Records
---
Amino acid sequence: MRSILFLIVFILSAVNLFAQVQLTGKVTDTKNNPLPGANVFIQNSYDGATTDSLGNFSFKTSQKGIQNLSASFIGYKPFSQNLDLDAAKTISLNIQLQESEDQLDEVVVNAGTFEASDEKKAVVLRVFDIATTPSAQGDIFGAFGTLPGVQKVGEDGRVFVRGGEGYETKTFMDGMLVSSPYTSKMPDMPTRGRFSPLLFSGTLFSTGAYSAEYGQALSSIVDMKTNSIETEEKSSISVMTVGLMGSTTQCGKNSSLSLSGDLLSSALSNKINKQQVDWIKAPLTADATVMYRQKTGKTGMYKLFGTFNTTSSEMIYQNIQASANQDLTLVSSNIYLNNTYNSTLSDKWMLKSGFAWNYDHQNMKIDDDRIITDQKMIQAKVGFSYFMNEQTELKFGSDWVNFSYEQKIDINGNYRMPFSNNELSGFAEMEYKPSRKLATRLGLRAENSSLLNETTLVPRFSGAYKTGKHSQVSLACGEFYQNPENDYLKFAPQLKPEKASHAVMTWQYQTDQQTFRVEGYLKKYTNLVKYTAPLATNSLDYSNLGSGKARGIDVFWRDKQSLKNTDYWISYSWIDARRNYKDYTKMAVPSFVSEHNLSLVFKRFLPALNTYASATYSFASSRPYHDPNLSGFMNAQTNAYNDISLSLTYMLNFFGKHAALHLMLNNLAGFDNIYGYNFATAPNTEGKYESSPIRSPFVRQAILLINIML
């Protein structure tokens, strides 16, 4: 919900139609030939337009004072001009662009990588795209669910990538690790990310074969780049049926400070939206966030990001395994602090450094039993970039992570299971471009774990070749290690790191307005954890004898050109994955894997109605599960998953203040999506294992709120 509120503020600033100035004109080359499809926009805003077939453009802006107008077109040098938007209500311009080798004409190593950014032109998604995807509900990780390679695992909420489990995707902020990126969750209910996408200027999402700078992730990494210094002071307040939220930004000469906070309760929303959960106490959440930015010297930038979150809830949970309805109470709190300092040391040297601290506390009460889990993470990191020449860049650095874990269990006695680990890593990576058509990247990473007493040496390689003005083919491969999950290490610290090998090949065609991408991949897993029974307490019941494999094809198409004021994308994934791990009796398709996944995202701005509309359709084929009433293993299938979600944002004037009314509808058609089943551990008197389905907590969800810019 907190992310949705940020979304309203974002849309208000992006498509505000009040007190506007009309900008019109034409974009041509030096020979006065029109340039259709050129981008013309006001810097630091989302006011802009794309030129038509004759090179003409027209748009309105609500920006004030001296603003910078930019124009860009593939193959031409960017154009920039300051305009006084207070001088007239209508401004006419003739813009002439000079030919140049553009960024898209140069090969870029990008196999397995999707990037969302407000700073680069050649990206698949922008931050605005993430924020306005209705099925994501303003969640970064939810938006990645519309990209190829990501599985629909509705009962979990984390990102499952290309046959990998949710824990195999690691999250970073400005290159620093976030050890607890998701909110705490009740059993069989989805979690979501802790951070709004609007706090970030860009997000790198790698679906495989990522850079040697990152480690301890078997399948995928997400690196979120926080916003730079704010240039405009602003405040807002949101009043809604689920609580209150406020935010403010203050600017200095070379600094900015942003504060936000909210108090939310889903009690009323749960009554409006039919629930499939028996809540005793609806979730109550309080959040606070601070972002401080300070320029130092000519090139230095210090960033501080801090957030605090606390949540409490209580429900009646039908535990079919225990043949009882249990009273579950969850109280959790989380603190994350991120400090980074980056600077250009000289013409050839750049410095990136950081320090992060994450504390996560969860107190789960199950009837009269209690489980308390505390996790602490400290990270220090330093990295350098050396630009040897125009063709060669060298990156190297090291990081240290101290992780401590303690779980206290009060169930028929008191038990305490602590462990700690120091992870010391170093990396080096060289990117070499012998020509504008060919690029290679060779990397090496070393990791040492004090707990596992293991050192791993990890090679990685990627390369790309330009096949046309707007197309290229890329190849990436490498090895990736990750320490076993905490639930295993607390019983068996003798385990070794799990391992995955990746090979990814990509062909991509991309212009400013259209993207087509086809990617094939192979993954091989070794050293996966196996155990004799879930929650086995004997360390000898655990081993690294598990294995797995995955292969698949991902397809992505995005078009912002064909339909006026319209943007849409289509993603499709096919996957063949098998695993023999945990307590599996043989190699089988894991329960979180759907062979086919499809997402359709459609967005349109309706100027006559002052409304921004978005819709998504998601499909996933059936998932396997094990039914003990049938012979064999992983012997049953769920029905296919379907979802239609819609959002409408209407801009209005509320007592002289700019405001927005936002309506979000999830699962509009009321599909009864079942993600799997829980089975009793013993048969009943008739010899049958009883079961209960795992469903979404609501049939449909409707959220209505208003946000006011002060």
---
Amino acid sequence: MKAPHAIPSLFGLLLAAGFTAPACASPDATLLAARDAYRANDMTKLADLGASLPSDYALKDYPEFWLTLKALDRDDDAQVQRFLARVQEGLLPERIRNEWVKKLGSRESWSAFAAEWKKLPAEGRDEESGCYGQLMQLRQGQAPADLDRFLEGKPAPEGCNRLIAAAAGKGLLKEDWLWLRTRLLLAGNYVTQARQTAAAGQLPLDNAALNKPAAANLATPGGQEAALFDIVRKAKNDLNASAAQLLKTQEQLSPERSRFGWGQLALLSARKLQSEQALQWFDRADPKQLTSEQWDWWARSALRLEQWAQLDKIIRDMPADIAGKPVWTYWRARTLQQQGKNAEARALFSKASGGHSYYALLSLEEIGNSLSTPSNKTTPGKDDIARMKADPAVQRSLALLGVAEVYTKPEFRTDAQREWRWAMRGRNDMELLAAAEIARKEGFYDMAIYSAERTREEHDFSLRYLTPYREVTQKYARQLDIDDAWVYGLIRQESRFITMARSGVGASGLMQLMPATAKWAAKKIGLTHFAVNDIDTNVQLGTWYLRYVLDNLSGNEVMATAAYNAGPGRARNWQTGKELDGTIYAETIPFSETRDYVQKVMANAAYYSSTFGHANISLKNRMGVIPARY
């Protein structure tokens, strides 16, 4: 192992000497300064500030944690060991150990890796550290499990690529498997990793032809892969031209390659909602080479056309792990219902009705049970709440939340969320409900929901479906004559009631308004000066825009919800030339984010409606019928 560097040693010396800085700043202000030093890569200042924090300060370990993150970048094992020796329990040592085992694995320091791997709980391992763990086991003679997870067409982290290469080197991966992963990566345009996989399996991929597919020699496997790569790549811009090229070339391709190509074109066609064409092309595809996404879209294409018998067959032909998902359990029940097989349908609806998800609620309604929020909620006692408040991880989380709110530092709120999630691991229902109540009282609404949603037997729906800012939300919902349960369902999905929420694309506030949308809406209602994160203003602008899209989309809440997330133009484009069941419209939305969003918002609205004592409208009726596009 490498010798410790001078700067981490300084930190240790300062701590050992009991150094304290002049008491001229609060611990929170010192912590912020330490974060700035970390970002500025000023390790001396970071160490100095960290050593000056009081020993009883809840967040005292964070500066050394940041210092240790920097040490990891330098492969400074000594600083990592010092930190892990001093801070032995909690989120921070777990995060450091997870990063360290990846470093040790990449350096093939297997003895040290094995020692640290034993100390890292399964919940603390990410995908790459898990791959290094499997690689260690492979070196010990244990074949890795579930390598088929790498046949989804997605790139993998370096540790997983090493695992694949090692498994290939030991003959544990067949040539067909390696070719399939290679062509799936090429289809996703992950060319570098495709080449790595081919090299690991000693496959004759024609790398020169990948750069110039027109020069590919179709008499060789590598040349065929290059030609197929060219067809699939061009399909993203001109699907029909690529289909014509594949039809022309398929006799020169091996059956598995031509059928792979049709599966790729079918997926693109399905996501463009060209369902009839997609079904034709899926019929030409090789089911053994389909990813879970392709199976999903094969089924959605049949669903979009309401071809129930074909949908039933597709779901029955799916691999068991895909067919067993709640979505396809529910839709298989619908296909049986359409075929008059009501007893079989009821059994599947019953199977899918467990829990509180969109599909569970729809299934519950199909077997004749209406949604009702339990009145006899489980309430934790004072002792339960006191015990959770005394938990060090909960205390760290709330301390970080305080820093975030006092100093308007969203990054500390992210740290608070991490600490809270760590603290909720392995908790029983009463502990989770106690934590949720603590979070609610602290205004930590997203984590109150997070904790309340994790209960298994005992529930409190007033915590799962919180109603903060009720007065302002109800005011604007009534002014605009829109369902306040729907508004709450949308806010819960958009921001989890985080007022400082800001998305990666710049949306802000409770209703996650984009700057241009907020400015446009403000102009329409005559607001000349406004702050988009102000709660009242954000709800005013957001509800006005929701009313606007509702009025412009036939008064249909499902389409308006889709429009709020993806834009009115797209919501219209997803209509068909005839009326369509709202559940089918939602299921066949091409954007996975928007599809999930619509389903969750509408399910949220159903729960909020029950909480508010509104008329009992089933989720299926809420989904309604989407009008034909004219």
---
Amino acid sequence: MLNKYPLWKNLMVLFMVVFSAIYAAPNFYPPDPAIQISHDDGVLDEAALDKATAALTADGIEWFDAEIESNGVALIRLRDQNLQSRAQQLVNLALPQQQYIVALNLAPNTPAWLESLGGSPMPFGLDLQGGVHFLMEVDTDAAVSKQLDDTVASMRNVLREERIRYRPPLSLDNRNRINIRFQDAESRSDAIALLNPAYPTLQFNTEDRADEFLLTYTMPETSIAELQKYAIQQNLTTLRSRVNELGVKEPKIQQMGPKGILIELPGIQDTTRAKDLISAVATLQFHLVATTGSSTATIEYPYEGSTVRVNEEIIVQGSSVTSAQSSIDPQTSLPQVNIRLDAVGARQMNEMTRVNIGKQMAILLSESKTRSVTRTQPDGSLVTTSEPIVDERLISVATIQSALGREFRITGLGSSEANDLALMIRSGALAAPMYPIEESTVGPSLGQENVDNGINSVLVGFALIVGFMLLLYRVCGIIANIALFFNVLMIMALMSIVGATLTLPGIAGIVLTLGMAVDANVLIYARIRDELLKGVSIARAIDSGYDRAFTTILDSNLTTLIVAIILYSIGTGPIKGFAVTTVIGIITSLFTSILISRALINFMYGGKDVKTISIGMKMPTTV
């Protein structure tokens, strides 16, 4: 029968409509401006939250909800986003600033039943939500120089221990070559036999001069490129780990070019806090665990619900750790963390551990960072500044099983613990220095203005299209408008599900999609009119209109889809935002313009002896 979908197709269309409505719904619950309060040890009590809310009430700042979430972080929701900074300063004054961290945030409002279904709103980009933008340049050459400096120190120790005489200095020249001079060829040959196996990645060369025999080691270009790549990747890992502390939704931290790192933190209005976190420095320290009756000075640290006393003396500084990777022990199939030290650290570790086998060694993570501190000025104004702080905590306590050297492993950990420990060690410090070359801030008021303008543009465009379709196609225009409405819902649902970030150019892509979506229905209705003018029946005209217009609609949308995919693959920033919504919009437009509108047409005209059709024709449509 013409213009009748089988049951399965009707159910599929109905399912997609309900599915889209459910997963688009979280976007109609915008987040509230809030301040976030966390404690250094992760425990925040109700008394501290009461002090914070009392300080806000006393100053006349209106808040409507305050709660401690399951992760121990408190959120105080505010009525006015413009009062966030003032609220942060007041809470900073009300609570001990050495123990509490107060940051600006946006509190979600998604209902629990939607969250239980996995529903969440689209994350907004930096241009819509406001936040901070940094472009950092990584000094990858410094990472190479540090590695070569470490190698020079190691070579000195090896030659000294084997009593191979060379002419000082054993040094690194400005071309990153390690030069070693000898008085005779025999000493040089002994050095080659000793150093080549120890440093297989270095290329060596010899040169005979009048009064000396020269041995030169250089790092090949492939090794330099690999080391520079490692420095970029470790810095990215470090920054992502640090940004997690801010609780930022959809942060963007990615490599830009060979040496750049782009950092965008949407929703963060506290730029000082963001810069403090990015510039923090963390290191590791290795200590012996104090034994009973020891007279050595000790320090106590909490660890896994108890207290551990460690000797004040540091075995190895964290600056000596060059790399850390988690792996599986091939013999025991248990997880382990492989640690690599530089030459100085390797010697210190070996000297200490070979006389302390069977004792425990503790790994201490020390973080030097800054904290935002608010003070009241003599004139009564509040000023927030940054002050340095040091946070120390034990991350591992293990038994020394044998004398350790340059490379050793930490065992006795679960799989997730090993991964976390390796990540913690790697993300503790930057592998290479970074320098800001670009910094900008998008304020929350500008972001809200962009959101309002973007929403208004979609509404105006939608209204104009609705009016156009009603004027030209009457009842069929209503069907096209209903399909267009579900198209917008499907775009919102898909973007929410895949976590695509909505940007201002993305809104432009949605507006473009609205025009393209209704264009498909215009083609279909034009084809139906042509068929009616030929004198065919209404049922046959509807069937032919959809079938014959399908190829044209598919071709036009496919070409646009290809262009949008190319834009996404080669574009950056705003171009990607535009391409994402365009690609999603084209896919949803094909579904709504063809399947949903056809289902509605079938419901109204399918399986009936229809004599007229409201499609905006002035001539008689009876047959």
